[in-house]
Amino acid sequence: MNGNMIFAKRIKQLREENGDSQESLAVIFNYSKQAISNWEVSGKVPRSKVLEKLAERYETTSDYLLGFTDDPHSIRPSNETKKPKDLKRILEQHDIMFDGVPIDEDAKKEILHIVEFELYKRAKELNKRKKATPDS
């Protein structure tokens, strides 16, 4: 067998743990469901860009997916501080799903609009409270 069976086992496990279906991964990565099945059954490893995106999606490393390490976070320096993720950038640059269903561009724009509106309302309310509170 030519496939990487560690990859097959790990990608299936991570997919299931994260509630992804083979169909949803096929849509996200622009592959057929059969290709996703081949990853999990025969250990066929996708091209490197897709492998990197899979590692990013499941918050691990390609080294872990391929079986070079058993530590899912092995290539990240231990003193690295985790940077917050920018929601706007995520919505603009990534394929995302809600409850296993891919979100289209129009829905992403609407989500961004709602978040911006709610943050604006919150900032306005906080400013109102500051003005109502006498300075110390």
Automatic annotation (TrEMBL):
Residues 11-65 form the HTH cro/C1-type domain. This is Helix-turn-helix domain-containing protein. The lineage of its organism: Bacteria, Bacillati, Bacillota, Negativicutes, Selenomonadales. It comes from Pelosinus baikalensis. The keyword DNA-binding applies. Pfam families: HTH_3. Gene3D superfamilies: lambda repressor-like DNA-binding domains (1.10.260.40). InterPro entries: Cro/C1-type_HTH (IPR001387), Lambda_DNA-bd_dom_sf (IPR010982). Keywords: DNA-binding. PROSITE patterns: HTH_CROC1.
